[in-house]
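WARN retry 2 of 3 for item q-0093 after timeout on previous attempt; input resubmitted unchanged.
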Amino acid sequence: MASVRNSGKTTAVGLPKSSRMKQFLEETWVELRYKVTWPNPKTQLVRSTSVVLAVVVIVSIYIYVLDIFFSFVLRHTILAPR
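OK item q-0093 returned
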C-alpha cells in the first residue's frame, strides 16, 4: 500500500475518491449486468414463492399444534383447580 496523505482528497491507494467511486460503480454495473443470474419470473419466482408459502403454512400448523398441546398440559396440571 502506498503511503498517501489523508486529506480527504486521496485514499490509501493514491486514487482520488471520485475516481474510485466511479470505478466501483462501473464494476458493480458490469457484475450486475453480466455475472448475476436473474430468476425467470414465470418459473423460478413462482416456484420459490410456492416453497416459501408452503414452509410458512407447515411451520404455522406446527406452532398451532404445540400451542394446543401446552395449553392442554397447563390447564390439566399447573392451572387445574384442586
